[in-house]
Amino acid sequence: MEGSGDGAFDIHWQAPNVAAQIGGIRAALEATLNPRIDNNVRQEALQHLEQLKQQPDAPQYGFTLADDYSLDNAIRYYGLQLLEFSVRYRWSQYGNAQVEQITKWVKCLAGSLRQQDAAFIRNKVAQLWVEVAKRCWGDGWMDMDGMLVNMWERDVNVKGMVSKTFVLSVLEMLSEDIMVNEDAVAGLRLEVLGAALNEVMLRQSFFEQQKRPKMLGARQGEQGWCSRMCELFVDCVKQARLSSGSEAEEMTACAIKALNALRPTMSWISLDAAAHVGCIDCFYLPFHTDDVALRTAATETIHALAIREYRPNWHESWSILQQQAMQADRIALLRETFDKLVCGPGEDDAKYTLKKKMSELLSVLADGLSSHPDLLASDKLDLPAFFDLLLHVLQSTSLVVSIPVLHSWSKMMSVQDNAIIDMVLQALGTLIQTCSERLLRYENLPVDTNDEIVEFLNEDFDTMPERHAFLGNYRRYCSGIIQSIGRSRPIEALQHVLEQMRNMLQNGPYTGGRGFNPETWSKNSPSVLQFDAQFNVVASALKGFSLWCVDVSSLGQDEPLYTKAESDRANAEQAIQEWSYTVISIHVDDPEVAAQVLQTLVTVLRIVKPRADFVLHVVQHLLTMRLYDDPAHQSFSDAVKSFEVLRVIELQKLALVHADELLEVYSELEPRIGVLAEKNSDDPRLVWGYKAFLFMVIHRAKGVDRTIRMARLQQMVKPVYDAWQDPGLTSAVGSLQSTCDMLGMGDLPEFYQTYRFDQAQNWSTQQLDEKGQAKQQRIKELNDRLPLRMTKSMLAVTTEKLKPGSEESEIASAMWDDIVPVVLPSLLQMVRQAQAFHNMDNWAQLPDELQMVVKRTLQDRFWQSGISSESKDEFYARISGSKTSYEGFASVVRGTMRNLREQGYHILYLMTKFDERFYSVHDLAKPLADALFADAECLSANHLHPLINLATGLVSRCPPHHRPSFLPPILIQLFTKLDGKISAEWAAINASNDSSAREDDELGDEMRTESVLRQLTYSMVSFVAFLLEFDRQPNSPANGTNGHDASKPTLHDLVLSEPSILEPMLLYCTHALRMRDTRCCTTITKVFKTIIPLFQSNTAPAPQVREFICTEVLKACITSLNEPYFADMQKDLAALIAQIILLYQRQTNTPRDVLLSLPDMTAPRVDKAFAKIAKATSERQQRSLALELLEGVRGVSIYEAGKIARETPKKKDNALQQYMEVEQRPTIAQGDEAGLDGVAGLFDEV
Length: 1246
Prior knowledge:
Elements: H1 19-33, H2 39-54, H3 58-66, H4 73-90, H5 96-111, H6 119-136, H7 144-152, H8 156-159, H9 162-180, H10 184-188, H11 190-201, H12 204-210, H13 225-242, H14 245-266, H15 271-277, H16 279-283, H17 292-306, H18 315-325, H19 328-340, H20 349-371, H21 383-394, H22 399-412, H23 418-437, H24 452-460, H25 464-488, H26 490-507, H27 526-553, H28 562-584, H29 591-607, H30 612-624, H31 634-657, H32 659-664, H33 666-679, H34 684-700, H35 706-725, H36 727-732, H37 736-742, H38 748-754, H39 770-785, H40 788-799, H41 807-816, H42 820-836, H43 848-857, E1 862-864, H44 872-880, H45 886-911, H46 916-919, H47 925-933, H48 945-956, H49 963-994, H50 1000-1029, H51 1051-1057, H52 1059-1072, H53 1078-1091, H54 1102-1121, H55 1130-1144, H56 1150-1156, H57 1163-1175, H58 1179-1189, H59 1214-1217, E2 1228-1230
Antiparallel strand pairs: 1-2
Helix pairs in contact: 1-2, 3-4, 4-6, 5-6, 6-9, 9-11, 9-14, 13-14, 14-17, 15-18, 17-20, 19-21, 20-22, 21-22, 21-23, 22-25, 23-25, 25-26, 25-27, 26-27, 26-28, 27-29, 29-31, 31-34, 33-34, 34-35, 34-40, 39-45, 40-45, 42-45, 42-47, 45-48, 47-49, 48-49, 48-50, 49-50, 49-52, 50-53, 53-55, 54-55, ...
Protein name: Karyopherin
Domain Importin N-terminal: 47-128
Pfam families: Exportin-5 (PF19273), IBN_N (PF03810)
C-alpha cells in the first residue's frame, strides 16, 4: 500500500498483507530477546524493528498485528508499539481523517479485549487509548465517556471483569497524566482535559448543587466515574468476602485495581465531591478483611485524600473527611489491623509495607489535629484511643515505621489546644522514655548486633549515608520532643534525666574500679554509646529548661503566675547546682564520658544564674580534671588528647559568659593555666588555647580601666606581632623553595631518592629508619613554630561574638590595627606557596619517577561513609598504625602544606570581622586573589571547599562601598579557576565511566572522587545563588547593618553589571547544566530563571549576555534534556528552554537558529511552537510546548545524532525519602592532622 503525499498513511485502508512481514518481525523480536544471539545480529534486528516504525503505513501494520489473536503476544505487543509510535510522534502530521482512523482502530482494539489476553497487552491498549485521548478528547473526541460507560456496563458473565479493569486503567492514567504528573502532551491541552476529566468524574447532581457553569458535555449520563468506581469497589470487596478460591482472588484484584484508579483521583478531586460520594466510608471496608494487599491499597488511597493541602474555602468538607477517617470505630479497626501485622526483620515484606503505610496515614491524621484542633469538636472521635495508637506505633522496633508518628508527636508538643495538651501530658512518660532510649547512635553499633532495631535498619537501608541521614533526623525529632518536655515540665523532666545521668556515672564502667580498661576502650562500646545517648537527653532537657527560663522572664510582676514561676525557677536552678556538685565529686577515667560531663557542667553554667562560688568551683574542676594518657593504646590516647582540646574550648565559652567572676580570681587562674600550658607544651593548639582563655577574661570583663586593659592585652598579643615582624620569615616565604627550606623540606627530592620511594609499592608497610623518622619529626616541629596557630587563636577569641560599637569591639580593632598590616604580606605569600606546592609544574625539573612520588605524596587518604569498604574505626586504626611508614611521612608533608593553607584561610576570615580596617588596606584585593587562586586548580577537590567558604566570608562581610574595587579580582579568579577545575574533573569522571570495568579498590576510589566532586560542584552552585540573593537577606550590609549605606549598589547589581565577573560566572553556570548532578543542575536552572528576565534591554551588557544564553545555555539545556541521567529534570530544563524562547524571541533569531540546527527540525514546526509559547497562559503549558517541540529529537544529542536508551531511575521508598534530606554532605574523614577546629568547621567561631 502506498503512503499519502504528506508521508502519513492512506485513509483508504485495506488490511495489508502482513504474512511476509510476520516472519521477519518474529525473527527480529526473538533476536532482541535471546541472550545467546550475537550482538551485531541483535543490533540489526533492533534497527529493522525501528525502521518499521518510521514507515508511513506503520499504523496499518500495527493494528493488523495487534488485532490478530492467532499471533504471539510479543508480535501483537509490537503491533501496539507501532500504533503508539504513530500517535506519539506522528500525530501532528496527520489530517482529520487519519486521526479519526487511528482513533477507530484504538476503539476497536479496546472493544475486542478478552479475558485470556495477557495483562501487558490489555495495559498497552489502555495506554494507547489514553495517548489518543490526551490529543483529542474534549474538543474532538466527544463520545469517549459514553464508550467507556458502555464497556463498563457489559455483562461480566460474558467477558468477566476485562472491560471494567480496562476502564479503570484508562481512568487511572488520565488522572495521573492530566492532574498529577508533568505530562507534556496533556499540558498542551490542560484546560480542556482538566475540565473534561473533572466533569466525567462527578455526578451531575453535584454540579447542580454547586451551581457550576455550563459543562463541556463530555459526560455520559447522570452518574460520574468517582461514584461508579466506589460502587464497584464496594461490590468487589463484598464478593471477595463471600466467595473463595479463584473468584475471591479475581474480586480482590478488581477491588485493588479500583483503588489504584481512585488514588490519583483523590489527589485532585474536589473535597466537597469526595465527601458527597462517601469515599472514606468505602475505603475503610478492606480493614474488615485479612487481605494485606487490599488493605495496603486502601491505606494508600485514604492517605492520598488525607494529605491534601488545607485551604480555608474547603474547611467544612476537609473537616468532614478528617472526622470520618478518625471515627472511634475506625481507629479501633486500625489498631486491630496494626496489631495483627506481626513480622520480624525481613520476614514478610507485604505486612511490613502495610505497617509503614499505616504509620504514614496516622501521621497525616495527627498533623491534621495539630493544625486544626477544632476537629476535636466532633463527638464521634475517641481521642484517647487515637493518641494511644500513636504511642503504640511510636514504640515499634522498626524506626522506619516509627518515624512518621514521631515527627507528628514533635509537632503536637507545641499545640496550645487544651484537649491536645491533656493527651500529650498523659503521654509524657512514654514519650521521654522512648525518645531517650532512641537517642542511641545505632549507626555506630556493629551490623551484627543482636537488636531488632538494628536488624530492621539493616533491612531498610542499603547505604550508610542514607542510614546516617535517617538516624540524624530520628534523633533530631527525639531531641525536640525532650526539649519540649523540658520546657513544659522543666522540674520533673530535669529531675528525671539528671538522676539517670548521675546513676550511670556512679554505677557505670567508667572508672578503673568498675571495670574501665584503656586497653579495650572504644568510643563505640555499648557503655560509651549509652552514656552518649543520656548526655544528649540531658542536653535537650537543659535546652528546654533554658527556654522555660526565658518564658518566665517575660512574665510581668503583676501576673498571677509570676511569683510561683520565679520560685520554681530558683528551686530548679538550686537543684541543678546541687546535682552539679554531686557530679563533680564522681571520678571518671573514660575520656568520652569525661568530655560529656564537662560539656554538661559548662551548659549548666551558661543557662542558670549561678552564684560566683559555684562558677569558680566548676572552673576549678575543669582545670583540675585529669586523665592519664596511655600512648600504648592509640585510640584511648587520641581520645584523651581530644578531651584536652575540648577542655580549652569549654573554658573559652565560660570566659565569654563569666569573665567578671573569673577576673576576681585571675591571680589564681594565671599560674594554673601556666601549669597546664607547660604540661602540654608539645601541642601549640593547647598552649595558645589556654593563653587565649586568659586573654578573653581580660578582654571581656567589666570594670577594668581601659588603659590597663589595653596594655595587658597588647602584652599578650605581642608575640604575634614579633613573630610576623621577623625578617627571616618574610624572606623564607618569598619562594616555594625557600618556604620548603623553612619547613625542613628543601631537600625533599633527595630524601625521596635516598629512601627509594619510587621503588616502594606499598608505602603503608615500608617503615622509615630512625633518621627518616627524625626528618619527619623535624618537619612537624618546624610547622609548629610558624606563627599561624597563635595568630588564629588570638584573633578568634578577640572577635568571638563582638557587638559592633561596644567597648570590647573598639579595643579589639585598636589592638589589631597595627598588627594586621604586618601579618598580611607574609601570610599571603605563605598561602600562595602552600598552593604552589601542589602545582606539578614546579616539580618539572625532577626525573619522571620522582615526579610520580611527589604526585603520590599529594594524594589524600580519607574515609567516606557508604563508599569506603572498611569501617571508620578500621580506617583510623590503619592510619595510626602507619605513622612511621613512608605513607606516614607523605601524610606529614601534605598535612604541613594543608596547615599553611587552611590556617591562613581562617586568619583571613577572622580579619574580615574588623570590617573597614581590613577592606581598606591599600591594594589588598589583587595580591589576595593571586594568593588564593593562582594555583587553586592544582588542589584536589576536597581541598577547595575551605577556599569557597573563605570567598563567601570575604564577599558577605565586604562593606558595599568597597565592593566595586575589592570583589572583582577575587570573583574573577574564583570562577575562572574553579570552573576549569570542576569541568576537567567531570570530564575525567565521564571518561572513566565509559571505560571498561575496574577492580573493586579502583572503583571505590572513583566513587569517593565522584562524591567529593559532587559536593564541590554544589558548593560553587550555591555560591552563585548566594551572590545573587545575598542583599535580599535582612542582615546583609546592603540592608543597612554594620553602619553601611543602604543606597550603595547591591552585590546582585555588581555581579550582573560587571562583564569581567558576569562572563566567568555565566560560563560556570552553563557548564553546570551539563554536570551529572541533579541537585546542582536544579539549582542552576533556578538561577538562570532568575537572571534571564534581567537581560531583555538593549543596554550593554544585555545584548551580549542574551546571545550567550540563546546559544550556549540553550544548547546545554537541550543536550542535557536528551540524556538519560537528566530524566527527572526534564520539567526544569523544559521550563528554562521555554523561558529563553518566550523572552528573547523578539530581540534575536538565535533561539530559532539553534533549534533549526537540530535533526529533522523544520522552520514551520519551530515557528508554530514559538507562537504557541508566546500565547501560553501558564508555565506548565510553556514547558509542555517546549517538550513537544523537542519530542522528535529527545534522545538525540545536539552535537551528535544517535538514539540514547532511557534508563529508569531507581525510586526510593516515599516513606523514607522525606526523612533522608538533612545530611547533604557526605561524611569524609581525613587521614591527616586536621587542626583544632577541623577542616569541616573551618569558620566555626570558637
